[in-house]
Amino acid sequence: MIRFLSLPMIVTSGISLIFGIFFMLLYFRLSSRYQESVRYCLIFALLALVSSVFLGAFSVLVNSGDNLDYLDISNRITIISSMFTILLGLHFYITFFDYQGPTFLKWCYGINTLFSLVCLAPNRYFLAKEFFATSRYYTGLVFGSLFQLWGVWILILSAYSILILFRVYTRQRRDHEIQSTAPVRLLLGATFVWLITGVSDDLTGIQIIDLPPLTWVGSFLVTCCIAWILVLHIDNLYEDRRLLSNRLMYDQLTEAFSRSYFEVRLAEAIKTMQRKDLPGLYVCMFDVDDFKSVNDCYGHTNGDRVLKGIADIVKGLIRPSDCAARLGGDEFALLLAGVREDRLAVMIVDRIRDSILKTRFGASPQEFSTSCSFGLVRAGSEHLHLEDLPDLLLTYADHALYASKRQGKNAVNVSSLPVAGS
Fold first, then answer.
1. Each residue of 243-292: pLDDT tens digit?
2. Which residues are known catalytic residues?
3. Tell me, what's the pLDDT at 14?
4. Euclidean distance between CA atoms 76 and 119, whole angstroms
5. Does residue 365 have a cis peptide bond before it, meaning omega lies within 30 degrees of 0?
6. Does the domain made of 259-416 have the CATH classification 3.30.950.10?
7. Which residue from 65, 149, 361, 391 puts its CA 20 to 30 A from 9's CA?
8. How far apart are CA 254 and CA 313, in angstroms?
9. How far is CA 18 from the centre of its chain?
């Protein structure tokens, strides 16, 4: 019959196993597909899996009763897995917080391996295969002097983990990274609980006190805290990636699309035409007439307001399927997808031109108006054979724009791409 005392260990063992599998899959996903440097995810996944073994073995130990074989196997697995759980926690702290101090991790793994080898075979120096009344809650094995040395080693690893976290916390406070100290403080508290529960089980094991097993509580608490911190960290990581993507996708001043994103949208539209899902498209380039004089007469702040105002006007007058981008300076571009005739494209652009002309910019008493010149060019299926079609469209649209300038500005001019045989 399963003892009630072991039920929380069984449940927490299953939860730790789920954590381990989830973060192992997450590690392989992020590292292989997205080339993210997330080695700390792998270390935590191993920590959670070993912790699951530790909690499961401890629950078997508590339920062993008078079955010496079960007690012998579960006791040794508990000792080995608890030792590596603490070490993997230490390894995680060092990796996640980029701790640069002396770590001695290789030596720690070596010492753990030596203790594990000694623990595997029954012997009087570490654990003999004999009953030992650890407490009234559960039974252990007769231990020797090496087991006591192992207990000291476990305390050293736990204390070193706390020392590293404390140094990381001090470093962050010194560098005024106040928001970054919250995870460290959380882990400091959880690791300190782990240390206290470990000392309690050690003292129970040598019959100085008589308490139920508690180490599993501290171990599971640390595992849950790390899992929560990793979830928040990965969320912040991808929020940073999203913000970076937005900075690359949008022009920061006008909030129109950027030149690089416009080029992506143009290439996608041409591919859609090649699949015959799009009958044609228009590219329009335009800029502000005499923009230098706007800056000279009304100041660069008003010049920026003009650019932002023009972008807002354009975005309000085009369809959701179209794309408006700032190419740089006072130069903008439009991608009108699916427009079939010059007449319709000119109508759309002329509506934008007229709206800009009627808008008053600046603040009273320095209100002023300005105008823009536009150049349009169309691409249809008959142009798909042309090399570097995206560049050609931008070049011909630019030529049409300067033709508008020569015609007296505040105008729309349409250019034509060459076709086969022309």
1. 777 777 888 899 999 998 999 999 999 999 988 888 889 999 999 999 99
2. 330
3. 96
4. 6
5. yes
6. no
7. 149
8. 11
9. 21
